[in-house]
Amino acid sequence: METIKKYWLVPIVILVGLGLYVGFKDGLTNFFSSLLGSNTTAKSAAELENMTYDAKKITLSQNDAVLISQQLVNAMDQWGTDEATILRLLSGKNRDDLLLIIKTFGLKPYNGLGLSEKLDIIVGNSTDLNLQAWLSRELSGSSLAQVSDIFKQNNIAF
Question: Of 105, 108, 124, whose CA–CA distance to 18 is shortest?
Fold first, then answer.
């Protein structure tokens, strides 16, 4: 009981400090974003809107594209990345299939650990990113090179 009376202020100081850190971090991020005039989410949304593919060359159904997009999110979400699944899902697709998958994936909130909104309290705010941005943040080494090659072979920016 003496210990509780003696150190009751420590958890409060830690919580206040954490709250100040998160608020200060968000404030700086918002300040510099507005200062630099960057609106990457709007730009990315516009790019997705303008993305076109030839419906005659698509070998996937819309349902297949939704399923692949969800499987890609699952492979990258939270701790760890299932690189083999990502490569399996993207390999062998033609340009129009990949564009359909990218457009179906859309913009998803990314916080460094995937979609996990519960972790945003600890990690910070998420940023809406497209598939290529998610892949470039989640992959490294030979897996990143392989995925980059898949996109480059199909004349899709990565």
Answer: 124
